[in-house]
Write a structure and sequence with these properties.
Helix content: 25-40%
Number of strands: 16
Largest sheet: 8 strands, mixed
Distance between the termini: 46 Å
Structural class: alpha+beta
Order of helices and strands: EHEHHEEEEHEEEEEEHEEEHEH
């Protein structure tokens, strides 16, 4: 039997930064260097030996599939989107003004401790499906684990600029304004992409995205290479997250690690399910280029300082049909 093809994206073993690992400075340095290279050259990579059991990640995808395929429309309608949170029908989400051919549920960090957000688009409670009955409990347990993994990865990213920077990114994400999505993609019926695809070309808003996706569906998620014209398939591999960096990492690193554009075009067989978790800065975190990154990029700041929450709200304002360009 022929060996499986070599993935086109880098593979990062994050175990040296797990709190359960007895690591040495040399193993941490090797991991951080590999991470630096992956973020610089691709902005996407596979994350292995991350400590989240396969039984849990399999359940996350299975429960999402059951919701999208087995839940009656009347039950879905009870959690229909109000502002940013809740269920979205196929075509309700837009990218660059075109409807995305998927349905989804968006969950966000709660805002009970942030009075300034309670009446805006991020206000209200998350709307959890009634069916499958066990979905909320399993997902909330998963959230705890993947939040911890987000902390591990941004700690390693800081270390990549030197051991003294290990806490730098983490210091702005301790109250991460996280987002979790469940997404269901029916196969595209049209070959005309001018009317919209499964999910249009975009970058992610914040720090790092941790993606789980159907292991048997290939060729759907595509990553734009640094040459600006080549699309790379980011097919799932067993036991790994597909991870990418977002706009705030690009800003923090003064463009050394660009936020990579990507899209989904699902023309294959079957119904594709994915569950991305977005590990983001604190809502009120102020993000500007690190002095070390500026030093490494000719000494000129390419980005001004912004508050992450302002960036997020600006993006949300154009996310849905009828609300403008995404």
């Amino acid at each position: 039997m022929a060996p499986p093809p070599t993935p086109a994206l880098p593979i990062i073993d994050i175990s040296p930064f797990l709190p359960t690992t007895d690591s040495t400075p040399s193993t941490k340095a090797a991991c951080a260097q590999a991470l630096y290279t992956a973020c610089h050259t691709h902005g996407f990579f596979y994350l292995t030996n991350h400590g989240i059991p396969a039984t849990l990640t399999t359940s996350i995808l299975s429960l999402a599939r059951r919701f999208f395929l087995d839940t009656p429309p009347s039950s879905k309608a009870r959690i229909a989107r109000r502002h940013a949170r809740g269920w979205q029908r196929i075509g309700e989400n837009v990218t660059k003004g075109l409807r995305d051919m998927h349905e989804a549920i968006d969950f966000y960090r709660g805002v009970d401790d942030m009075a300034e957000l309670t009446d805006g688009p991020l206000g209200g409670a998350n709307m959890w499906p009634e069916e499958p009955a066990e979905l909320r409990e399993v997902y909330e347990g998963y959230l705890t684990k993947v939040l911890g993994l987000g902390e591990v990865v941004v700690r390693a990213m800081g270390y990549a600029f030197g051991p003294e920077y290990e806490e730098t990114f983490l210091s702005k994400t301790r109250n991460s304004f996280w987002v979790l999505r469940m997404i269901g993609y029916p196969p595209l019926q049209s070959t005309n992409s001018s009317s919209g695809i499964s999910c249009g070309e975009h970058t992610d808003y914040g720090c790092t995205t941790f993606l789980l996706a159907d292991p048997d569906i290939k060729g759907a998620l595509q990553v734009l290479a640094r040459d600006g014209s080549t699309w790379i398939d980011a097919d799932p591999i067993p036991g790994a997250f597909v991870v990418n960096i977002g706009d705030m990492i690009e800003r923090w690193t003064n463009g050394l690690w660009p936020s990579t554009r990507h899209r989904v075009i699902h023309r294959g067989d079957g119904y594709r399910v994915s569950v991305p978790f977005f590990y983001e800065p604190d809502f009120n975190a102020r993000i500007k280029p690190l002095a070390k990154a500026v030093e490494m990029t000719s000494g000129v700041e390419k980005f001004s300082e912004i508050m992450y929450g302002d960036h997020l709200l600006g993006k949300i304002a154009g996310n849905f049909y009828g609300s403008g360009d995404a």
